Amino acid sequence: MSSVSKDKSPSSKKSSSKSASAAPAKNGAQNGAKHAARANGAKRAAGKPKATKPGATASSLKAEAQKLSKTVKKTVTKEVKKLGASVRASAEKISTAVKVKAGKRIFFFGNGKAEGNKEMKNLLGGKGANLAEMTNIGVPVPPGFTITTDVCVEFMANGRKFPKGLEDDVKKNVALVEKSLGKKFGDPKNPLLFSVRSGARASMPGMMDTILNLGLNDEVAAGLAKASGNERFAYDSYRRFVAMYGDVVLDLKPENKEDIDPFEELLHRKKNAVGAKNDSDLSAQDLKELVADFKAEIKKRKGVDFPQDPHEQLAGAIRAVFNSWENPRANAYRKLNHIPASWGTAVNVQAMVFGNKGEKSATGVCFTRDPASGENVFYGEFLINAQGEDVVAGTRTPAKIVELEKSFPKAYKQLYDIRKKLEKHYRDMQDIEFTIEDSKLFMLQCRSGKRTGLASVRIAVEMVEEKLIKKEDAVLRVEPEALNQLLRPVFQPAAKVQAVKEGRLLAKGLPAGPGAATGRIVFFAEDAVEWAAKGEAVILCRHETSPEDISGMHAAEGFLTSFGGMTSHAALVARQMGKVAIVGCDAVSFDYRARTMTVESGKGSTKVFKQGDWVSLDGFAGEVLEGRVDTTPSEVIRVLIEKDLEPKKAPLFQQYAKLLSWADGFRKLQVRTNADQPDQAEAAVAFGAQGIGLCRTEHMFFGEGKIEPMREMIVAETEEERRAALDKLLPLQREDFAGLFRAMGKLPVTVRTLDPPLHEFLPHDEAGQKELAKISGKSLEQIKSRVADLHESNPMLGHRGCRLGISYPEITEMQARAIFEAACDVADEGIDVVPEIMIPLVGTKKELDLQTDLVHEIAKEVFKARGRKVKYLVGTMIEVPRAAVTADKIAETAQFFSFGTNDLTQTAFGLSRDDTAKVLATYKDKDIYAVDPFVSVDREGVGALMRMAVELGKKTRPDIKLGICGEQGGDPSSVEFCHQLGLNYVSCSPYRLPIARLAAAQAALKEAKR
Description:
By secondary structure, the chain is α/β, with parallel strands linked by helices. It is built from 39 helices and 35 strands. The strands form seven sheets. An eight-stranded mixed β-sheet has the order 16-26-25-18-19-20-21-17. Strands 28-29-30-31-32-33-34-35 form an eight-stranded parallel β-barrel, surrounded by six helices. Strands 1, 10, 11, 12, 13 and 14 form a six-stranded antiparallel β-sheet that branches.
């Protein structure tokens, strides 16, 4: 349901923190002096006589003098106002600093004044800080008070006991609210009721607990009924309170996951007994009986009476909200969103206003802009005669916010004006909660609204165009990862919802490649290629993928693995190719021989799928769905990659391009890509790549017609045989490199020489080995023997990288020759190519020297034969700890360093990224690792090695070029770290480039602010 009000004015017939100190006093004095000086300067400037014009009359001189006098008066008045505002602001900061320093536990808000402000989120939580801020700017907010996050931390450290004197402080603030409203807490004749809500510094919607209507008991409920003249309203409020208090404070919950909420069960029973369809159909008498039923259930299940003392209720509620900081869902949310447990939550105690008083009352939630699309429209929903929880509970269908004007024209106009006021004040899209009681509007909360990636970009760009924020603000405001949503194909929303409703959601894994893909199940790379060639969309399903699957992965719409993590081979290739991927999906298993996929439901049942059956992958959510779900390409991809949409007809693309053009203007880091095929390079250039930071040559060998001579070379028994096979590979490699050079033009291309161990290129099935025997002219026994000889117990640390090039220098020779011949060919076409040759897995200077000398020797041969030279660099990857700690020596030879953080992380931690998914999950769960070190650079360990290598390398070679080409090069946190280290560039998968560009800009802007 769309819940949008077009952005028009309502119709009218007529028309801080604990670290604060005394520093603000000094700043305030300085600001005051500045303003005073400015005022005096303005006065002097304004009062300076102008040259009298020849022939000026007395009247004209008098008019000029009057005009000058007005200018002086206006200027001085303006500066005095600025001075006054500055002094007041400084005074408020000093006052706040003193209160915080003195350990003030509770901050009051009400009557247009608040002791806190929006800068105090760390102490008051987001909700408390914004309630204070709204109060200060004149928005109608029911009075109340906020108990600080410090008290929560102290409460937890004190064995979940209140700090001494807290309850007395609470009573003092209750008295302030009583005085503000002229009501009395616990007084049946004129009752004051409270809501008690959590509020952490970071938004954690729905994760902690809330209690409404606190202060009701048997006597007060009867008094409220009499005072309001609305018995049904009083007992509707009472039954809600008893249920909330019983759940949150007294912990009366379902006994197991099959049970329903005990209070909901009693409510359904009552509705069935009296024939009520909705809660609102229950009479006052029905609600009275329901209250009695609720209290009886509490007594029966918990063995205690429902408390009748309002102050006891309040203490219990505050305690429960503090405890909810450690409830299972809050803990899980914090881990997912990297929110420290040490922060604690504030507690907001606020006078109740009632949206359930009758037809002149309502409650709702709205956004100052559409949070899904970002369109500048008033968006939201409301319910008449309801309380806040009803809007989100789904028990009643809310009305669109535009319809509020019909029922409450005055309140709607006020709400519309507040919408504008809050957005202008906070300079961001706001999520607002409101209640209308007897036609009077009250604001209960505002916060920066959650939004989609699409909305995030649109809102940021349009707010700059509206002059609400600056370009710097827009760049800092958009989460880099949010750009993923603009690049990936998506399921048509209605089709996805329908699939889930039909029970077609099969399993969940790790969302390694964002987007949406639908295709037929295949289990082998060759089948994927064959089926795709016939026009079939396929999903490649494997236990795990390897470089040998590269052609099938390229042909597939997406891939699904039962093993592996977010940096497994499948995940890395998915991001490089822009493919959808779900990895580590342990609910699925594959039988390659039977060509079946079995899905376990978790309830003991299984479902079997055959090759050719349709499945769909939601790479955003990590969800596997049965059957076909329609997808649609993203607007950005259609413009940049498919080129079937003109930019001027793509408003979303225009906003995306504008944001990234601003980002490019701020960033210092260059952004390169990891690519090894011309189409990948072309896509990368479209995404803004400034070069190739890593070309993995091993991926090229799996191209058409290349794997056979590569395998011949590997099984060769003599150097002569190896060179014969390499001669077949040379023109193929040369063609590949030329394609990359042409795609990149004048941009640098970093080519890594052969890195993986040779056994990865050989077939391990008998049919493949027989084929290799036939091609190479060797017996099957010889092939099997060679495969066995190449087997290594730990290939990650075995015969690979520069070790291969040193053992078989003819391999490096062939690759260097192919690079230089391709460079000369493309240079002859008028393109100034910039090849950079990178030697992998170097641990000693001697290793690099041997390989570098060989490269230089081949360069001389090629340049002499071609009669021309091409500028080039030779450098190394820093991916083993020894290289980092001896970087000063290695820099004597290396012209550049590129941090291979995938292997550097493996060797620093002693972990294999492909085999430790379960270990990493356990370690993250136990807070041993805050984040997966293969996803984001471990700054303490791996980062320290990187810093050491940078410092040592620059000491030897001050102009050394520094980059990163591990997968972390596209991680925003890692990009920021690379900026701090002073690297020249980061390199990442093509589809991560926009993220890296934005992250690099944010790193530069954050540094400038510091």
